[in-house]
Design goal:
By secondary structure, the chain is of the alpha/beta class. The chain has 18 helices and 20 strands.
Length: about 525
């Protein structure tokens, strides 16, 4: 279906260009309603069905792409614009994050897929109608934008375009009375990018939300983009790494890096021009000090299972919430997939390790300590070689199969996780090396560490919240925060077991020379069906 739609709109593109080689400025028409024309094709035409679909997408997104952030600090979104069956859940993931945000103005920056032009194009109508009702355009600001030399007002650019329209039902779900400023962005010289950003900046207030409408890579012969030198193995992994290069630049908020990434990859991102404007807005401090976070990523192959023609989708936010100590669900799942792929690769070695890397985010690139734990289900024969009597007396809910980590690391988090995954599987001295037969049965858990700090007394330890590092002379041992609850230990028993783990008497923790450090972790693990 996605192929038929692309061909249909390619034909439409050709016909439009035969009819109109250039866009001619037109007078802004007052009190004209432009009706959504993709309803019934890209999303339901019936209001009830459309509302129910968006609710389903929102629920799915909240489970797959949850993120803990302050909605009121979000200043801009990057959302895909394919039919909802392909990219709707990615769009829902970012719109979910602004449900409670108070905004009265939305500026949408979208590409033109069918009519080429330079500069920006503004609508000659005053309202948008979708199955969910009517949205009002901010005519005062549109008139001001239209006075700029790089601005055109043209109906024919809006008639076939879907990149703007696909965003509207999501906007209506969260803020139906908001005023809209739809801006289609054509090809821009470098100086024009800065000029357009400066023009838009003056209309961005604390209650303005900027939305960039863009899909990511369009791969395949149907898109005339096959950059992998006839290497058709693991196409999804190759597309992901290509996207990672570009998305990394966007998250670094670096316009020059983004433009270099586009040049290096010859990327087919349809919203490259709106993204350039967004990066210029960030550079001009239009939103204050912000961070850009990847919230969700997927491809059309998830819906079609077609890996010969692939379109990828990403959802991002630009936010004043600068706390990046917590990984969102996208980053957690990326690390878990990378950890699993690292284990599989240890037995097969069929895939270039570079292709296995997750999509980069600043959080995954930051040097961070981490532990990787392997669990096996109850009932399987134990592979334990070295185990003390205290451990043998404990009856946990699941069986440990390996656990190794680093409190701190000079390596990026994703690299630390890969190294610790391999170490937990093959270098934990308490266990025999993991076998390929065991691989499918083990569950991976990752613990990302926050920096440790010293405490005056063991009495300051908050059990099940704090990881504990006990040091007595040259001897030391560490427990992750989850250990006491997993084994049913109280604080005294926890410190006794920690002393034994350090190779000391169980009461060593009571010595005056005992020193304690604590830390917190973010833990997440695979879910097996």
């Amino acid at each position: 279906m996605i192929l038929r739609k692309c061909i249909k709109y390619l034909i439409l593109f050709v016909l439009l260009n035969l009819l109109c080689f250039t866009i001619k400025p037109a007078r802004i028409i007052r009190n004209e309603i432009f009706s959504a024309h993709r309803a019934g094709e890209w999303y339901p035409k019936n209001a009830h069905k459309l509302t129910n679909l968006i609710k389903t997408l929102e629920k799915d997104a909240s489970e797959r792409y949850a993120m803990d952030t302050d909605a009121h600090k979000i200043k801009a979104l990057v959302c895909p614009h394919a039919a909802y069956e392909y990219s709707g859940v990615i769009a829902a993931a970012v719109y979910n994050l602004v449900k409670t945000k108070n905004f009265d103005r939305v500026i949408i920056l979208a590409p033109s897929h069918f009519v080429p032009f330079k500069g920006i194009t503004l609508p000659p109508f005053t309202h948008y109608r979708t199955p969910l009702g009517i949205l009002t355009l901010d005519q005062q600001i549109i008139h001001k934008l239209a006075r700029h030399t790089l601005s055109l007002v043209a109906q024919n650019a809006f008639n076939p375009e879907h990149a703007l329209e696909v965003q509207l039902p999501f906007i209506q779900r969260i803020s139906p009375k908001v005023e809209l400023i739809p801006v289609m962005v054509g090809s821009l010289a470098e100086s024009s990018v800065s000029e357009i950003a400066a023009l838009l900046k003056q209309f961005i207030t604390p209650t303005t939300l900027v939305i960039v409408s863009s899909d990511m890579t369009h791969y395949g012969k149907n898109f005339e983009y096959t950059p992998f030198n006839n290497d058709t193995n693991n196409l999804l992994l190759q597309v992901r790494q290509l996207d990672s290069t570009v998305l990394s630049a966007v998250q670094h908020q670096d316009l020059a890096e983004f433009q270099n990434a586009l040049k290096a990859t010859s990327s087919t991102i349809c919203g490259r021009e709106p993204l350039r404007v967004l990066l210029s807005l960030i550079d001009k401090n239009a939103f204050g000090k912000t961070a850009t976070r990847l919230v969700a990523y997927a491809t059309s192959a998830d819906a079609t299972q077609d890996e010969t023609n692939i379109v990828s989708y990403a959802g991002l936010i630009v936010t004043q919430d600068l706390d990046t100590t917590l990984l969102n669900k996208q980053e957690q799942n990326s690390l878990l997939e990378y950890s699993r792929a690292t284990l599989e690769q240890a037995f097969s070695k069929k895939i270039d390790p570079e292709r296995l890397k997750p999509i980069m985010t600043p959080v995954l690139e930051k040097p961070t300590g981490a532990f990787v734990t392997l669990w096996e289900p109850l009932g399987k024969p134990s592979k334990t070689l070295k185990i003390n009597k205290k451990e043998a007396a404990v009856k946990p809910q699941k069986k440990l199969r390996g656990c190794i980590g680093q409190i701190t690391s000079k390596e990026p988090l994703y690299k630390t996780v890969a190294d610790m995954t391999h170490a937990a599987a093959f270098r934990d001295a308490r266990f025999e090396p993991l076998t390929q037969e065991e691989l499918k049965n083990v569950t991976l858990e990752i613990s990302v560490l926050k920096p440790a700090y010293s405490i005056k007394s063991y009495r300051d330890i908050i059990l099940n919240k704090h990881g504990i590092i006990l040091t007595i002379g040259k001897a030391s041992a560490l427990f992750l925060p989850k250990v006491p609850s997993e084994f049913g230990f109280d604080l005294t028993r926890t410190l006794e077991e920690l002393s034994i783990k350090a190779g000391l008497d169980k009461n060593a923790w009571k010595l005056p020379t005992a020193k304690f450090h604590v830390f917190e972790t973010q833990d997440f693990q695979e879910k097996h069906s």
